[in-house]
Amino acid sequence: MSFNRTVALIGMMGAGKTKVGRLLAQRQGLKFIDADTEIQEAAGCSIEDIFETQGEAVFREGERKVIARLLNGPVHVLATGGGAFQNASTRAVIAERAVSVWLKADLDVLWERVSRRSNRPMLKTADPRRTLADLIEKRYPVYALADLTVVSEGGPVEETVVRVEDALRGAGYLAGRGAEAGE
Question: What pLDDT does residue 183 have?
């Protein structure tokens, strides 16, 4: 069983891109790459620091360059940052070199997940839940341009991974019946 294209997971912070991506890559015998980790390594500092010292525009430009570089490599599973797909240039390179899978989650699921951590630069506001809701309203129409949409619910990550595999298989990006079938 294998992908015929890199799988780029997109969606809001807290949608499960990293957890789903790691398990999906493991099940498929592929490398997993987290774009945020690669951006931090390239910049030599945290994303939070980039936002604070250089601003979101500088971060987004660096993010675009890193994702384009990563998509030049062999087939893998890529978790993108929550805002990456909002950039038209990043969207275009993902469309050209990968299959995009939107992990769609509702506000309650996202809030339950992201409220556990305090290192989310976009949520450093007076009302972070309202900010998250506003981001959903702004970003979901753009995420809807993804090749595939898979619901990310509050259940075990394995369930979401199976839904992603099923969606990829149904769209012709994945052959076989599943890792549990020994393929």
Answer: 39
Q: How far apart are CA 63 and CA 47, in angstroms?
A: 10
Instruction: Specify the pLDDT at position 182.
Output: 38
Domains of the chain: 6-178 (3.40.50.300)
Whether 167 contacts 161, CB under 8 Å:
no
Q: Where are the alpha helices (DSSP H) in the chain?
A: 17-28, 35-43, 47-54, 56-70, 88-97, 107-114, 128-143, 157-170
**Structure confidence at residue 179 as a pLDDT band (50, 70, 90):** very low
Residues in the chain: 183
Q: Is the pTM of this model over 0.85?
A: yes
pLDDT given for residue 31 in this prediction: 96
Task: Report yes or no: 85 and 100 within 8 Å, Cβ to Cβ.
Answer: yes
Q: Could you tell me the end-to-end alpha-carbon distance of the chain, in angstroms, rounded to an integer? A: 6
Greatest distance between any 2 Cα atoms in the chain? 50
Closest CA to 149 of 167, 174, 171: 167
Q: In what order do the strands lie in the sheet with 32-34?
A: 32-34, 77-79, 6-10, 98-104, 148-151
CA neighbor of 40 nearest in space, from 121, 115, 105, 118:
121
* Residue 43 reports pLDDT greater than 80: yes
